[in-house]
Amino acid sequence: MIQGYFCERRQLFFEIELITADGLNLPIDALFDPGFTGFMALNIQDLDSPQWDYIDK
Prior knowledge:
The chain is an all-beta fold. It has one domain. It has no helices and 3 strands. A 3-stranded antiparallel sheet has the order 1-2-3, with no helix packed on it. β1 and β2 form a beta hairpin. The radius of gyration is 13 Å and the shape is globular. It starts with a strand and ends in a 26-residue tail after the last strand.
């Protein structure tokens, strides 16, 4: 079962792990989006550690 928490703006967050190409697990807090669009929104600082590219939509 996934456990999450509500922030002060009543948004539901839960922890997920991002896995880099070299196998490093990076736990981050993810926002639950009930109207899922096929994209994942991340904080920009979470892209720095795995050195992923930022793609602006």
